[in-house]
User: Fold this.
Amino acid sequence: MRRRDWQIGEARRLILVWIMVLSCLPGSIAHSQGPDDREQLLATVHVHSTASTGELTIEALAQRAEQLGLDVLILTDNFSLRYEYGLWPLPGLLKRQVRFPSVLEYGIERYLDEIAAAQSRHPKLVILPGVEVAPYYYWTGSLVERNLTMHNAQRNLLVLGLTKPEDYRSLPANGNPGSYTFDWRGAVNGAPILLVIPALLLWRPRRYASDRRSLRRFASCVLIVLAVALVANAWPLSRPAFSSYDDQLGYRPYQAFIDDVKGKGGLVFWSLSEARDFHEFDAGPLGAVTVKTEPHAEALLMTTGYTGFGGLYQDGRTSIKPGELWDRLLQLPASEQRPIPVLIGELAFHGLSDEGKDLHRLVMGVQVKVRTVAGVLEALRSGHSYAVGEGDHHVQLRLDEFRVVCQGGTKSASIGDRLDPGVARDLTILLSVTARDDGRHPVKVRVIRSGEVLAQFSGETPFRLNWPDTTAPTAEPLTYRVEITGSGELLSNPIFVGKG
Assistant:
């Protein structure tokens, strides 16, 4: 019995020795392990339901997501689609207001309750509540001059991670009365109510001739009508933080919105920042009213504190090209104190009637520590994710591994993590790409280091790479990311090399 125990002990020690040896070999143990034991989930981001402008109910979306093998459904229904334009000098009284389905119209509590109910019916699917918000729009021109234009109705931000109705109710956005505030300007606007006092004094009977009494009462009526009109024009006396008739505000409203969401613990992403929206509506004899939103990639530079941006969607994009805006932001020195923007893929799904769209056509690989809402939010916030679009080839790529290792494979980092190699620069890139259907599909791989294309490779899935970067500089921080095309499109978030 003692001899058997000794043999078992020797076998265990031998296994331990082999594990230690293998851990020192580049591409061995590092190649087989997941990124810090994270689980990879398949998520679809930017989805609309019947709570706003979508065609499918929240329950139908959950069912569809499960049918397609998705793990995470991230809803971002339109928060507020209330627009108005008023004529001078009484824009609050002589105005036209237009409303479309939105979470505010649907009811914030109702929206969150339906998501919670769907989550309870689909425990294997993680459902995240969120909203799409255009915090600010403004008008230029006029109906009289036949050039009235509404700007930036589609300059949107995606908000995730808010759980309490009051957090949504107070989001500072035009069209959301819950965020309006009462200040001295509201008091001034309400001051005309004081005209009722002299009106009452004039109305009181006096010992004057009847013709004088009629004149006084006429004046009293005029004052009362004027007071009511001016107060109605100013109603409600509370005001939005930023006027839609002020075209000189720039990005101030958006920064205020980002700061508000961040202060509530939420995540906020710039959405479809290079897309253009343009419509003209017939106003009869007054001509056409133009509604437009120009591409606004500069928003990534003009604001700070946001979590990330949509870098992969079904439209043209330049900011994610090597050396362009995203890479420049990734290379900013730590002294700038700007959070590193995370890339997401966004589907902008409204329904199956959208040609070429379904919940699985553009997704994200999200690497979570725990399979919960909190786990998904943590992965999105920290950049442990990548974006995948099927494209015309209908091939969904999967990034099984993307890792930078050094010191003989004993130190490594994956997407969203930082590797501190010390003085060593024996950096090796490990990459594994497969297709969801396990088929063989052509791929073109570009490894991008600090904004420059470091290497390019071609092959088929399953594609594997174990490639040493022999030209890595030793005295500067580096970022590594990959771009994969050929069959669909895949964009990764970066791996950081160097001291944080």
Notes: Residues 392-500 form a domain with the Immunoglobulin-like fold (CATH 2.60.40.10). The chain is about 25% helix and 30% strand. Residues 210-234 form the longest helix (25 residues). The longest strand covers residues 397-406.
